[in-house]
Amino acid sequence: MATYITALTGASGAVYGIRLIRELLARGDDVELLISPSGFLLLEEELGLYLEKPAPARLKRGGDPRPRPEIEKAVRAYLERAYGAETRLKGSLRFTPSDDMTSRLASGGCLPEVRAMIVCPCSMGTLARISAGISASLIERAADCMLKERSALVLVPRETPLSSIHLENMLRLSRAGAVILPAMPAFYTHPKTTGDMAAFIAGKILDSLKIENNLYNRWKKR
Fold first, then answer.
1. Residue 61 vs residues 73, 96, 98, 99, 140: alpha-carbon distances, Å
2. Domains defined along the chain, listed by start
């Protein structure tokens, strides 16, 4: 299957990113997971998913490329608890600290093995830095690589209301080739739970990547 970079940042809506990761792993896709410092806080606050942040990454080339695997195990365990263990998560999950600028994800040379990158949820700060070409973290650098290599980049902002600055940043990124997919659940699907709304957004992300899915009921004329 394919490899996807999935980044979670400090915008509210951590459930959207987690639901997407679950679907990708269930398909058998591999996920390269990046989490910003604020993303860790949102996972704990909104989902009760406590992940101990790794120590600052070594900047020296040749340092340990893999942090403690406890984060990967904890995320997989959470997915099994939240969505049921009957669906086997066939894909691999690899976590890299967002400050590890020695990661191969910081180079456009790794992109032939990456199908797409999704930032979900995407904070306005992350979106602004990507828009300006500022690579202050591995998340922003990887997104910059996706844009410069003309690869698929999907940004899922969750903010309201939007200022003119937010809108201008989104327009700039759209013109640069990114897909701007706001976390706006639809109600024609008659969602009964927040999980239904999260599945809708995950389904729309997969739609944007031309990945077949049945995560929500398609609109049908009555």
1. 26, 15, 16, 14, 20
2. 3-208 (3.40.50.1950)
